[in-house]
Amino acid sequence: MKVVVADANLVPYRDLLARLCPAGTTISTHPRRDRLPQLLAESDAVVLGVPLLPETEGMIGAGRLRAMKPSAVLVNIGRGPLCDEQALYEVLRDRVIAGAAIDARVEDIAANITRLAEGRELENLVVR
């Protein structure tokens, strides 16, 4: 397994990551944001855990989702607006990527469930 840390704030935790990963895992750090498209295209799993800031809102849009490997999964444990939910719904529906798990939605109020949350019929989507 190969783990790539793409956040400069996580670089100090490299030793902790090494202990959490299976034996033989290589961990490399690439905190440069301009490498994000390449990292997305090469990754088996993409985990979004960054804070919601003006520069991170919408950081994963349709183009970046479609650049991911067909076998890749997206996990959003950050804030909903990090990822374009409509685009995510479409790539899951069209099986462009293997799956997604989200613990954050733009709308967390039951009366205003987003299209993605309504997509619970998608077997490749887990919404918490």
From TrEMBL:
InterPro entries: D-iso_2-hydroxyacid_DH_PdxB, D-isomer_DH_CS, D-isomer_DH_NAD-bd, NAD(P)-bd_dom_sf
GO molecular function annotations of the record: NAD binding; oxidoreductase activity, acting on the CH-OH group of donors, NAD or NADP as acceptor
Transmembrane feature ranges: none
Signal peptide span: none
Ranges for domain D-isomer specific 2-hydroxyacid dehydrogenase NAD-binding: 31-111
Family label: Belongs to the D-isomer specific 2-hydroxyacid dehydrogenase family.
Protein name: D-isomer specific 2-hydroxyacid dehydrogenase NAD-binding domain-containing protein
